[in-house]
Amino acid sequence: MTRVVLLVLGAIVVIYLIQKYGTKFLLVLDEKAFLDKNQGLEQAAKDKGQKATHSPLEFDSYASKIYNSHGFWNDDEQSVGAVFQTLHNELDVSLLIKAFGIKDGMALAGFLYEFLNSSEIEEYVNAPLRGNGVKFQF
């Protein structure tokens, strides 16, 4: 009887691990596809004559600020909002997405939705972008 219980528990653990890591692998593939689409956004913005309003170093700093805003106990939504208030065109958004890359298996969009709910995405991400005339929305 003990052997059967151990086998069943072992099978459950194996199934769980396959589901967990299989999903993570698929998520990374989706995030890479998102980054590939971002290259098209960047080129389209450049074709429209848009110029970046920040340096590459600033975009790296903004990406780190967003990443570090996701705390273990408390999240710093205001820091996220402060970053998105500085973005003035689609090229800026694209360069931020590029600077963020993939962290913890997620590109910027996935990361934002990991710790912000839809009303926070609207308040701290999409509303500031719209306020600056940026059409791209997360």
Tally the beta strands: 0
Detail the poorly predicted runs: 21-29
Helix content: over 70%
- What is the number of helical segments per DSSP (H or I, 4+ residues)? 6
Q: Output the structural class.
A: mainly alpha
The radius of gyration computed from the alpha-carbon positions, rounded to a whole number of angstroms, is: 19 Å
Average predicted local confidence, pLDDT: 84
Biggest sheet character: none
3D shape: elongated
Compressed to H and E, one letter per element, the order equals HHHHHH
* Span of the ends, CA to CA: 53 Å
Q: Provide the β-strand percentage band.
A: under 5%
Task: Describe the structure in your own words.
73% of the residues lie in helices and 0% in strands. The radius of gyration is 19 Å and the shape is elongated.
Question: Summary?
Answer:
Helix content is 73%, strand content 0%. It is built from six helices and no strands. Helix 2 (56-68) packs across helix 4 (90-100).
List the topology elements.
Elements: H1 2-47, H2 56-68, H3 77-85, H4 90-100, H5 108-115, H6 118-131
Helix pairs in contact: 1-4, 2-4, 3-6
Attribute tags:
mainly alpha; elongated; 0% strand; 138 residues
